Amino acid sequence: MAQTFTEAELKDIYTFALDLGRRAGKILVDGVEKRTGAAGARDMGKQEEKMNAVDIVTQTDLDVEAFVKDEINRKYPDHKFIGEETYSAGSSKQYLIDASPTWVVDPLDGTVNYTHLFPMFCVSIAFVLNSQPIIGVIHQPLLDTTYSSLVGYGAWQDDAHDGGKQRKRLPLVNSPKAILPKEAPKGCIFSCEWGKDRRDKEGGNMWRKVNSFVNMAAEIGGRGGKGGMVHGVRSLGSATLDLAYIAAGSFDIWWEGGCWEWDVAAGIAILREAGGLITSANPPPNPETDPIEEVRLGSRLYLAIRPAGDSEGETGRQAQERVVREAWKRVQGLDYSRPGA
Amino acid sequence: MAQTFTEAELKDIYTFALDLGRRAGKILVDGVEKRTGAAGARDMGKQEEKMNAVDIVTQTDLDVEAFVKDEINRKYPDHKFIGEETYSAGSSKQYLIDASPTWVVDPLDGTVNYTHLFPMFCVSIAFVLNSQPIIGVIHQPLLDTTYSSLVGYGAWQDDAHDGGKQRKRLPLVNSPKAILPKEAPKGCIFSCEWGKDRRDKEGGNMWRKVNSFVNMAAEIGGRGGKGGMVHGVRSLGSATLDLAYIAAGSFDIWWEGGCWEWDVAAGIAILREAGGLITSANPPPNPETDPIEEVRLGSRLYLAIRPAGDSEGETGRQAQERVVREAWKRVQGLDYSRPGA
């Protein structure tokens, strides 16, 4: 039987998750200090001096996950916990999320960025109930910026500003909420990632991605009519932050395959609460008319559209669905499966 | 005859440029407030309410350039000024930089990001003497982060941190300075941009870029031996910030064509002072042995390699040159020319 929570309980969980994200981020920043040498000379013992950058990052990743898991276990001992590090170490790649209250955590998304001290990395914490992410926290510690949501209470950005904190509702452009371009994907910012599958094989994921990117980017009329002439193409190296920027309205369309639950759970919670849409990356047989289904957490295939305002003759939701279909006409299906899917 | 400046004069110019970048950034942030509505309800008159987002951005861009130009003219009336907005409005696309003391300014780089409130936009201010950028300031106002340099005095990042300011020397990873991977481009972060030229034409710039991106990304052995298996591909939508992140060591290789002087002048000053290398994007006839020439400001073709530490049997500079040649073997020459070039 599905467990239920009172409004007060959910608010407590949200407050706890926000604080937890920031404390976890502090550990990541301490790891950065070690590497830039600020604290390194003072604090590092002989043993740590022998660790190279990759060792430090791997250890920090494990430390942050252990910290987050401990804190959750102490406060909510009967909740389930799924973290990237513990999960990856196991052998099963089955769906692990059921109706139970479950925390889904990526202690460090954007590991390569973290290694290179590029600030586009984050802690991602989601609370999932009845298989739906209903609370999300994405914290960028180096920028001191947090994206978060509680179902029914809005999605928010908190950032450091003039020495204080400022809280803004997502999407950021909201007076009025920006409408989606009439000729979308033309005029849109398209967010995508090259990923790890780089096999140079016709029909492989890299080539399906590249063909899709070029379709979205090429001039109108190009690519046999598939040219989408997007306004810009962005690749940050963090799926979690791609979703946060979609929720903020900074990016319009995000299309990606291969992510796991912990990469997207918090982002999905925030995006939905901000008014965004998320469905499958892979076009159905008839992109023009087939139903646009809600994404399944763990499907590994994602197409997200930013929150959109109503305009004359079209609601925001209708505009989002129009953009989903225009994207589907231009992208190729990706091949990321999992046992049980 | 070339004009000379004393050390004290140059330090004054650097201090002035730093302050100017931050004040200009403040105007950009005020423009953001108008759009997110925080200040909008209070401050916007009836006329401004009628302006759409694009109008506000264009106006802000012009306002910032006018502000920067006025401040420079007041303090240094005998210096030349080249700004994106004033230059673009004119008809000439000749080289405009000579031996005179010249300020080269982009009031807003990453305009599309600014329109979408994605924080990867900046003010870029360079001071150029004898055709060489010797002072650079790149300020990201939404992140309150500044990259800057004065020739001979180092390159620096200043950012807001725990409510205060922190100054770090570039590159950020510097104890010891990170060495470049032995199998580069494998292991590197490759930074590139899709740009505005989207003609779907074999031999056009979009296809030359895409072929180059795929060569850099594909598995080792793929693409007829050209596969570079870079660790990650990043596209931010701001050439200026790409260069700042190369100087910081956050990105390893930046390859781009089509930029103008104001997009790169400050970044080149900062990158060189941090110990980076910048040359032409277009491979010479023999990439293995032809000399690696210093880039010409205004050539519109750029390949930048991050600062690199020495390792056994190889200086940092030798490693950078090795990476230049490995990149040249994988990229196709781009077609961006200018009158007088």
Quick tags:
2 domains; 341 residues; 36% helix; seven-stranded mixed sheet; homodimer; 12 strands; D-Maltodextrin-Binding Protein, domain 2; Fructose-1,6-Bisphosphatase, Chain A, domain 1; five-stranded mixed sheet; alpha+beta
Description:
- The structure is a homodimer of 341-residue chains.
- With 341 residues, chain A is α+β, with helices and mostly antiparallel strands.
- The first copy, chain A, has two domains: 163 residues, 2-Layer Sandwich (Fructose-1,6-Bisphosphatase, Chain A, domain 1), CATH 3.30.540.10; 140 residues, D-Maltodextrin-Binding Protein, domain 2 (3-Layer(aba) Sandwich), CATH 3.40.190.80.
- The first copy, chain A, is 36% helix and 20% strand.
- Chain A contains ten helices and twelve strands.
- In chain A, the strands form two sheets. Chain A has a seven-stranded mixed β-sheet with strand order 1-2-3-4-5-6-7, sandwiched between helices. In chain A, strands 9-8-10-12-11 form a five-stranded mixed β-sheet, with helices on both faces.
- In chain A, strand 4 and strand 5 form a beta hairpin.
- In chain A, helix 8 runs parallel beside helix 9.
- The longest helix of chain A has 30 residues.
- Chain A is globular, with a radius of gyration of 20 Å.
- Chains A, B: Its EC number is 3.1.3.25.
